[in-house]
Design goal:
It is built from 21 helices and 4 strands. The chain is mainly alpha-helical. It has one domain. The strands form 2 sheets. It has a two-stranded antiparallel ribbon. It starts with 9 loop residues before the first helix and ends with a helix.
């Protein structure tokens, strides 16, 4: 262990530990903290994507592989303590927007993820993303992020029947039964862990709720009822490759895929930028001259590579996780934190049978809580300024009500432009935003056709 902290050792030279005022021990602890706070994605992501017909175990393998490789790459290339994994919200759009909503086959949707990653790489390499980022009003970024949070919460509530469809009122309370009561128990259990700031609260909540659900299921079965949790017959299994390189790139290049690719690209970009800025401000990684996160160019490039790899391996787009702030709070200052977090994902590709028994009632509380985490940007919106508040609110409310992230983004953009234009402030609309608006209108026309 002593050799790890000497300046001659590659770890010191690669991550500049002394220059950043940290040690190997601190970085390892920070990496573990980051992993524990985001490890829920190992179960939640395949649970969401399996609704498309994709095998749970195969998506779990893809999730683990993408998370591990992207996080390690972020640490080595950008030397930042930011870990990556398939993004919450983006996976919901992939499943409920593209595949189930628009009827796109999941291999074609994976092709769209791959293409969006290639575009993101080009935007990063040619600095176009700087112009795009400057063109997107902050109020819309906040509104979209919060809208995705509400969308996730709605998915969580409906997945267990807590909220159900109802003709007279559109939706209504689904009533109390075994599943909804277990959901409430899991929600309160996980909430208590979060409030107490237990590291890994979400994954502990999932495991705890799953165990409670298993016990209740066994009691139900013993009493002659139908069990609702399937106990795995084994713990270990070699990784399944059923979604590995199964993407349909040619299908994703069709004219009708312009809107989905557009939505994937910019949703990923908004999430990445907001995460970089948020975690950088917490950890003191802001560049004083540019007022941007340090190494943001390299970090965005890695994020783009992660998205491209996601399409190849068989999952929705990877993105930087806001949970990386947990590692920063533990003292993480270099990419070694991200490398440690990434490596901790790898063992889970061999225990998919153990994880696959976890029912929706165990993951639904996490979806609701992640939704709560994602609505925090609403506090940054000036609600007294209606030129900002109205577009932000449209983005916020239309995402869950239309069950489409794309609709929220499109109408947020268009309403912002129209309000500025007819209030004599056309000069405040960047040229890039006009271009985005044109693509939004074209995409709406294509969808209507």
């Amino acid at each position: 262990m002593i050799i790890l902290v000497t300046k001659e050792f590659p770890v010191e030279n690669l991550f500049k530990l002394s220059e950043k005022g940290t040690t190997v021990q601190v970085e390892i602890r920070a990496g573990i903290a980051t992993f524990l706070t985001m490890a829920y994605i190992i179960v939640v992501n395949p649970d969401i994507l399996s609704a498309t017909g994709m095998p749970f175990a195969a998506v779990l393998f893809a999730t683990v592989l993408v998370s591990a490789l992207s996080s390690v790459l972020m640490g080595v290339v950008a030397n930042l303590p930011f870990a990556l994994a398939p993004g919450m919200g983006i996976n919901a759009f992939f499943t409920f927007g593209l595949v189930l909503g628009m009827g796109i086959p999941w291999p074609t949707a994976l092709g769209a993820v791959f293409i969006s990653g290639i575009i993101f790489i080009l935007l990063s390499l040619f600095k176009i993303r700087d112009a795009i980022v400057r063109a997107i009003p902050p109020c819309l970024r906040y509104g979209v992020a919060a809208g995705i949070g509400l969308f996730l919460a709605l998915i969580g509530f409906t997945s267990v029947g807590f909220i159900v469809g109802y003709e007279a009122t559109v939706v209504t309370f689904g009533g109390l039964n075994t599943q909804t009561i277990l959901f409430l128990v899991g929600l309160m259990l996980t909430s208590i862990l979060v409030i107490r700031k237990v590291k890994g609260a979400l994954i502990y909540g999932i495991i705890g709720t799953a165990i409670i659900a298993l016990i209740v299921s066994l009691i139900t079965e013993a009493a002659g009822g139908e069990p609702f949790v399937t106990v795995p017959t084994r713990v270990f299994q070699m990784p399944q490759l059923d979604v590995f390189f199964r993407l349909d790139i040619l299908g994703a290049l069709s004219l009708g895929m312009i809107l989905p690719i557009f939505a994937l690209l910019f949703t990923d970009m908004f999430d990445s930028i907001s995460t970089f800025v948020g975690v950088a401000e917490v950890g003191g990684f802001m560049d004083e001259k540019t007022n941007e996160p340090q190494n943001v160019g390299k970090a965005l490039l890695v994020d783009a590579i992660g998205t491209t790899a996601s399409g190849l391996f068989g999952t929705s787009s990877a993105t930087t996780y806001i949970e990386s702030a947990a590692g920063v709070e533990e003292g993480g200052r270099t990419g070694l934190t991200a490398v440690v977090a990434g490596l901790l994902f790898l063992p889970f590709m061999f225990i998919s049978p153990l994880l696959s028994f976890i029912p929706a009632v165990a993951t639904a509380p996490v979806l609701v809580l992640v939704g709560i985490f994602m609505v925090k940007p609403l506090m940054k919106i000036d609600w007294s300024n209606f030129e900002d508040a109205i577009p932000a609110f449209l983005a916020l409310i239309l995402i869950p009500l239309t069950y489409s992230i794309t609709q929220g983004i499109v109408w947020g953009f268009l309403s912002y432009t129209v309000l500025k234009l007819f209030n004599g402030k056309a000069k405040e609309i960047p040229v890039t935003l006009w271009v985005i608006d044109v693509f939004a209108i074209v995409s709406l026309i294509i969808e209507a056709a």
